[in-house]
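FW: tagging you since you asked about this chain on Friday. Here's the raw sequence from the shared folder, copied in full. Didn't touch anything.
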Amino acid sequence: MRGEALFCYVSDAQPLVEHLGSHAELRFLHRPANLEDVFIKLTGREMRE
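HL: got it, structure written out here
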């Protein structure tokens, strides 16, 4: 699948990262949230330039 994205906001990412890592067919990125993530979570919309 291409173009699919799922954002997970958790207080302890380690169990999720371990679980995702056990599925070789999945690609994922683990990074801390930033202000754009907070905006999207609060408004449900993307930022537009």
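FW: Helices lie at 14-21, 35-43.
HL: agreed, and The chain has two helices and no strands.
FW: great, closing this out.
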